[in-house]
Design goal:
single chain, alpha/beta, Rossmann fold, Arc Repressor Mutant, subunit A, Trna Endonuclease, Chain: A, domain 1, 3 domains, 5-stranded parallel beta sheet, 5-stranded mixed beta sheet, 14 strands, 17% strand, disordered C terminus
C-alpha cells in the first residue's frame, strides 16, 4: 500500500519486530492469499532496516536469475554481473549478510520454485552452512498457500525445520476494513465487505463512492474488471487444475454435499474429498457444521466472499454483462442476486462476530423439517456463561433493506421448537439496518439480544448475551433458574406494542 500508512497489521508487525530483536540467524515463513497485503507488510517492516529484497517472477529459470541479480544490484547501488546460478546468487547474499546485520526477504517463492525446483535445496544449504553463523533475518514469502506450507511443513522437503517461525497474513476483519472507508455509511460498509471480504487490495481508493458505483466500476466494466479474479486465484493456487474451479461452481449452483459434487463432476469420491479439503485448507470453501438434530453430514458453502460473489452473481451472467452497453441496467437486473449473496455472507460475519466477542465452544447450523417445509436456524452456538455453564444460543441473521420486526423473532422461536431446543436457550437477532421500535422495547424486557450493523462494525459495544437468570422473565414460562424454556411467539398488538401470545 504505497504512500499510505498500512492499516490493520499492528499484530503482524509486532510479531516480526520481536523476531528481529533476536540475535543470530532468524528465519520466518510468511504466507497468505494473493492481494492480502503480504508485500506491503514486509515493506513496512523493512523500512528502517538494511533490507535485501529479492522477488521471484513468473518466468523461466534464466529470467528469474536475471531479475534476482538486478535486485542485488539495486541493493548494492551498482551493477553486478548476472549470477551464474542460484548457488552463486546465494553466495552473494551470504557476503552481504556477513558485512552487517541484514534483513533478507525472498518474496514470491512459489514463482521461483516453479522454474527452479532446486531452489529449496540451494537455500537450505546456505542456511545450514554459512547463514546460521551470521546475524541476519531470512524471510521467505508467497501467495500459494499450499506450496509455502508444503515447503516448510513436509518432512520430505529440504526446508523442513528451517522455518520454525511462521506468519499467516489473514484477511482483515470487517471492523478493521472500516478504516479504509471513513465516509461509508453502515449499509455500504457491510455490503462492500460482503462482496470482497477483508482483502486490502479491494478496499483501496474507493471511499466516497456508492455501492452501485463500486460494482459498476470494478465488476461490470470490461477494462480492469475483478469479476474473474476468484477463478484466477484458485487456478494459481492449484496450478491450473480446472477441477477445483469446477467444484466451486458446483457448490455455487447448489450441489453442497460431497456425494452430489462428486457425481456432478464425474469424479471418484475420494478424489473429490481431497480437493474439497484443499479448497477448505486455503479458505475458499467451508463446511456448515450440523447442530442439534440436523443430518450428521456437513454441507459445503463458498466461504471466501469474493469467490462467492464472482461465482454466485457474476459468472452466470457474463454474457449479459459483456454484451450490455448500460452497466446501470445490468446492475438493476443483478440486484436481487447481489442481495441474496449479501445475506449469505452476512450470516457468516455474524457467526465470526460471536466468535470474537464471546467464549464460543461450538458453532454450526440446524436444518430440517418444520411441517411441510425445509427450514433452518442460521446460527446455533454453544457458549459458556459467566458461571461456565454451557448455553445454547440460537440466531437469525437478516440483511434486509428495512429494520427487522416481530416476524423474524417469531420465526426463530417457531424453528427452535421444531428443532427440539427446549432449555438453556438465548435468542439473538442480527439485522444490518436495525430493528423496529416495538421489537427493541420487547427485547429489553425479555432477554432477546439485538445486534445491528453498527455493533458488527465496532461502532457500538457488544451487548451481554446472558442476563441474570435468578429472576424469571415474562417469556420464559416460569423456567427454573439456569434453565430457560422456549417462549411462545409474540405478535405486535394493534397499538404496536407486544401483544398476545401467538397460538
Amino acid at each position: 500500500m504505497p504512500g499510505r500508512k498500512i492499516i490493520g497489521r499492528d499484530r503482524e508487525l509486532s510479531y516480526l519486530e520481536d523476531l528481529w530483536k533476536r540475535k543470530g540467524l532468524v528465519t520466518c515463513c510468511v504466507w497468505g492469499r494473493r492481494r492480502v497485503g503480504k508485500t506491503a507488510l514486509l515493506d513496512e517492516f523493512g523500512k528502517d532496516k538494511r533490507t535485501l529484497y529479492l522477488q521471484g517472477i513468473e518466468g523461466s529459470y534464466y529470467e528469474n536469475l536475471s531479475s534476482l541479480s538486478l535486485d542485488v544490484s539495486e541493493f548494492l547501488g551498482k551493477e553486478v554481473p548476472q549470477a551464474e546460478d542460484l548457488s552463486h546468487l546465494m553466495k552473494i547474499v551470504e557476503e552481504i549478510c556477513a558485512e552487517e546485520r541484514t534483513l533478507v526477504v525472498f518474496d514470491e517463492m512459489p514463482y521461483l520454485l516453479e522454474s527452479a525446483p532446486q531452489a529449496s535445496s540451494v537455500i537450505q544449504k546456505s542456511l545450514d552452512r554459512r547463514l546460521k553463523r551470521l546475524d541476519c533475518m531470512f524471510i521467505i514469502c508467497g501467495s500459494s498457500i499450499s506450496v509455502m506450507r508444503n515447503e516448510t511443513e513436509n518432512a520430505k522437503r529440504p526446508l523442513y525445520g528451517r522455518f520454525e517461525n511462521t506468519l499467516q497474513v489473514k484477511p482483515l476483519s470487517l471492523e478493521t476494513c472500516r478504516a479504509f472507508h471513513p465516509g461509508f455509511d453502515c449499509e455500504t460498509s457491510l455490503r462492500w465487505y460482503c462482496t470482497v471480504g477483508g482483502i486490502p487490495y479491494y478496499h483501496l481508493g474507493l471511499d466516497g463512492m456508492t455501492y452501485r458505483q463500486m460494482v459498476e466500476e470494478k465488476f461490470l466494466r470490461d477494462e480492469g474488471s475483478w469479476r474473474n479474479d476468484a477463478t484466477s486465484i484458485i487456478l494459481q493456487e492449484f496450478k491450473g487444475n480446472r477441477n477445483y474451479t469446477g467444484i466451486v461452481r458446483c457448490i455455487s449452483d447448489g450441489s453442497v454435499k460431497q456425494s452430489e459434487i462428486a457425481d456432478k463432476m464425474k469424479m471418484d469420491r475420494a478424489a473429490c474429498k481431497r480437493m474439497l479439503d484443499d479448497l477448505e485448507f486455503v479458505g475458499i470453501v467451508g463446511r456448515k457444521i450440523p447442530m442439534g438434530g440436523s443430518p450428521k453430514r456437513p454441507v459445503y458453502f463458498i466461504k471466501d466472499p469474493l469467490a462467492s460473489f464472482c461465482y454466485g452473481v457474476m459468472s452466470g451472467n457474463t454474457r449479459m454483462i459483456v454484451g450490455s452497453r448500460s452497466k446501470r441496467a445490468v446492475f438493476d437486473r443483478l440486484e436481487n442476486d447481489m442481495n441474496a449473496h449479501a445475506g449469505k455472507v452476512f450470516e457468516r460475519l455474524c457467526g465470526e462476530w460471536l466468535d470474537s466477542n464471546f467464549p464460543v465452544v461450538e458453532r454450526g447450523q440446524w436444518w430440517g423439517r418444520a411441517g411441510d417445509e425445509d427450514v433452518d436456524i442460521d446460527i446455533v452456538a454453544k457458549i459458556a456463561d459467566s458461571r461456565n455453564i454451557i448455553r445454547t444460543v440460537l440466531c437469525e441473521c437478516k440483511f434486509s433493506r428495512k429494520p427487522v420486526g416481530f416476524g423474524t423473532y417469531n420465526t426463530l422461536v417457531s424453528r427452535s421448537k421444531a428443532a427440539g431446543f427446549t432449555e438453556n436457550l438465548s435468542f439473538v437477532l442480527f439485522s444490518a439496518l436495525g430493528f423496529e421500535d416495538e421489537l427493541s422495547e420487547f427485547s429489553e424486557e425479555n432477554d432477546v439480544v439485538l445486534v445491528d450493523g453498527h455493533m458488527l462494525l465496532g461502532d457500538k459495544a457488544p451487548p451481554k448475551i446472558f442476563k441474570d437468570r435468578r429472576r424469571t422473565s415474562r417469556h420464559h414460562g416460569g423456567g427454573a433458574a439456569g434453565h430457560v424454556s422456549v417462549p411462545a411467539a409474540l405478535v405486535p398488538a394493534q397499538d404496536g406494542k407486544a401483544g398476545r401470545r401467538a397460538p
